[in-house]
Amino acid sequence: MEVTDSDWVRGNKEAKITLVEFGDYQCPACADYEPFVEKLSQEFADDLKIVHKQYPLSTIHKNALLAAKVAEAVGKQGKYWEIHKLLYEKQDEWANDGNPRGKLVQYALDLGLDKQKLESDMDSDETRDEINKDIALGDSLRVNSTPSFFINGEKIAPRSYEEFKKIVEDYKRGYTVE
Q1: d(Cα 55, Cα 95) in Å, to the nearest integer?
Q2: I need a labelling partner for 33 at 20 to 30 A (CA). Which of 54, 57, 100, 162 fits?
Q3: 178 within domain boundaries
């Protein structure tokens, strides 16, 4: 799975171990896993490249696509990981809102962003295309739930931070997931 310049990457961009997450900002399980991924990014800062891909499950999460658009638009102003964290932390505030756009835009503005650029980017064809590209990749990899994780292209399903950590440590030692 190739990492491109348009991907959202944290950690060491030159790392030999790449963890890719297909996530949905309205997904409660994704919010539960975010602290694990954050901790991995800190504990394995030199060894791990972490990539987030948009995979909004719009049929069951009505606000997920809008949240993905907000994240992409905020990323264009250099604050992707800040909004990424906020969307999960504040999920209970916006996830079931009938019209969450105002709240989501306000989260972005609280990060000191340009409102006009934000709203223009949220509604742009480029943003839509980036999200659709992530969804198509997920579909090609048979992603059917979120979060879905891949390490160096291999699907993994850790159920705890300890399992995540063991998988990364195994890859550091040159082993792969069995």
Answers
A1: 15
A2: 100
A3: no
List phi, psi (to 5°) of 103: -65, -45
Write the CATH number for 156: 3.40.30.10
Q: Peptide bond before 28: cis, by omega within 30 degrees of 0?
A: no
Torsion of CA 161, 139, 98, 118, to 10 degrees: 90
What is the per-residue pLDDT across 107-138, written as a single tens digit (0 to 9) for each? 999 999 999 999 999 999 999 999 999 999 99
Indicate the pairing of strand 48-54 with strand 8-11. Answer: antiparallel
Please, are residues 19 and 50 in contact by the beta-carbon 8 Å criterion? yes
Domain count of the fold of the chain: 1
Q: What is the mean pLDDT of residues 48-55?
A: 97
Q: How far apart are CA 69 and CA 22, in angstroms?
A: 15
Residue 58: strand, helix, or coil: coil
d(CA 96, CA 90): 11
On average, the pLDDT of the chain sits at 95
Residue 16 predicted with pLDDT over 70 = yes
- Is beta strand 148-151 parallel, antiparallel or unpaired with respect to 154-156? antiparallel
